[in-house]
Amino acid sequence: MITSKNSAKAIILQDRKILLIKKQYEDGRVHYTLPGGTQEPGETLEEALVREVFEEIGAEIMTKTMTKVYEHSRPSRKQPDITKHKIEFAFLCELKTPYTPRNGLHPDSHQVSVEWIDIDNLKTLTLDPEQLAEVLQQLTIPDNPFYLGRIQ
Question: What is the dihedral of CA 149, 132, 85, 11, to 10 degrees?
Answer without folding.
Answer: -20
